[in-house]
Specification:
With 272 residues, the chain is mainly alpha-helical. The protein is 65% helix and 0% strand.
Length: 272
């Protein structure tokens, strides 16, 4: 059985983890210390871990901040049949990966299985497979009541999918999945900030997505000869312009509102 990983976008994240426990920044810094400087293209292909925070990692922070689960924030599973072009499938694989991370972090069992199902549908249609993927669904079902094991399994799936795509010459697809995961992770975060009464910690999470967005855009840049990659890079520019005006850990109400509107617009173009 084939199945998927996200993640969107160390995005996000998926990205989108998703999502996860070991700080991606610390791991990547350690890897960087042990490697020589290479061109961006070579550096990208040599990465075996999600290069930006996954949606799972972002959502785990939301959980720690006391934010509650709200199903209506996620992309409805009924939308999956609307995604026909490969670009749309890849972006929404990242989106659903973030939604899977969201549901599993909050131990929403039925929603976790629902998002697993639609993610598997897209992963099959994109013909992404690996040794890990074959048993991914069974492992999720078997560990549905064990939060720590479930998060670890989904985390590994993000990294494994990303590695499979890169190693099989599908860098562009991996970037689209990553972008979709990161976008959904940020969208969920902004919605939680709106809903939560005490949202100071959640606003910090929003502010701290500045660096992952910069990294995502830098990864997209060498592949912009691809029309699909160029299009997603273009729709992310307004969001990047807003982030360029903010500092670390701090958002004014106006800046948050700008980010909220911008990410909702970007996300709307993907999930519609």
């Amino acid at each position: 059985m084939k199945t998927s990983k996200f993640n969107i976008v160390k995005i996000s994240t998926l990205l989108l983890a998703v999502m996860f426990f070991v700080s991606c920044g610390n791991r990547q810094a350690k890897e960087a210390e042990n490697s020589s400087v290479t061109p961006k293209e070579e550096a990208f292909k040599s990465v075996t871990k999600y290069p930006i925070p996954t949606a799972f990692e972002v959502i785990k922070l939301l959980n720690n901040a006391g934010a509650t689960y709200i199903l209506s924030i996620s992309n409805p599973i009924e939308n999956v049949d609307k995604y026909i072009p490969a670009k749309s499938k890849a972006l929404n694989l990242g989106v659903y990966g973030a939604d899977l991370s969201y549901a599993s972090t909050y131990q929403m069992k039925q929603e976790t299985m629902n998002y697993l199902k639609v993610s598997k549908k897209l992963i099959d249609e994109l013909q992404i497979t690996s040794a890990f993927n074959v048993e991914f669904a069974q492992r999720v079902e078997k560990n549905i009541d064990n939060k720590d094991s479930l998060i670890r399994i989904i985390s590994d799936s993000f990294y494994d999918t990303y590695e499979f795509l890169v190693n099989n010459g599908k860098d562009n697809t991996s970037l689209l999945v990553m972008a979709g995961s990161w976008i959904e992770g940020l969208y969920i975060t902004t919605q939680m900030a709106i809903i939560s009464k005490n949202n100071e910690d959640i606003l910090k999470i929003v502010a701290n997505q500045k660096e992952p967005l910069t990294k995502l855009l830098s990864l997209l840049e060498p592949y912009k000869t691809d029309k699909d990659v160029a299009e997603i890079a273009e729709v992310l520019k307004p969001l990047a312009d807003i982030y360029n005006t903010i500092g670390i850990d701090k958002l004014t109400p106006e800046q948050f509102e700008q980010i909220n509107k911008a990410v909702a617009q970007v996300r709307g173009t993907i999930v519609q």
